[in-house]
Amino acid sequence: KRYQKNLARKCFEIEQQETTPQAQLREFVNLYRDGLQDNKICLCGMLTADLSVLNSEIKAEIRSFFSVTESWVARLLHRGCETEDWQCSKSVEVEAKMLLSMLQGAQLLARVAEDSSAAFDQITGACLEEKLSAVSD
């Protein structure tokens, strides 16, 4: 619960400090990147690998974490669609799941690299830049 509240606080801070959906998206991605610099990965992402052996209370917390996080990202993506910061061709809910999947995977793959931050940037950079540069007509 504390982990989820901490992320919710960080997302709220992003909304307060960054004025555009593009800047908010970059800062959200940086939450995952910054964890690597502290030699950490997403706790719920890590626990998901062992979901089948966890008790029901922990499973519920993990599911809640991802549900809340996906909802926040979907709202952010929707705001970007409304302001035409990017093009929206998929449902924002599906795109939020895709973005979180990419970030979770990027953290794992980047950990095995000599320079984890550079590897994370390489993995996420093309996808993020494609999203941010695709402005609707």
Describe the structure.
Helices cover 76% and strands 0% of the residues. With 137 residues, it is mainly alpha-helical. It starts with a helix and ends with a helix.
Structural category: mainly alpha
Which range best describes the helical content: under 10%, 10-25%, 25-40%, 40-55%, 55-70% or over 70%?
Answer: over 70%
Mean pLDDT: 92
CATH superfamily: Tetracycline Repressor, domain 2
Q: Tell me the major beta sheet.
A: none
Task: Briefly characterize the structure.
This protein is mainly alpha-helical and 137 residues long. It has helices at 2-17, 21-37, 43-48, 56-82, 92-111, 116-133.
Question: What's the helix and strand layout?
Answer:
Layout: H1 2-17, H2 21-37, H3 43-48, H4 56-82, H5 92-111, H6 116-133
Helix pairs in contact: 1-2, 1-4, 2-4, 2-5, 2-6, 4-5, 5-6
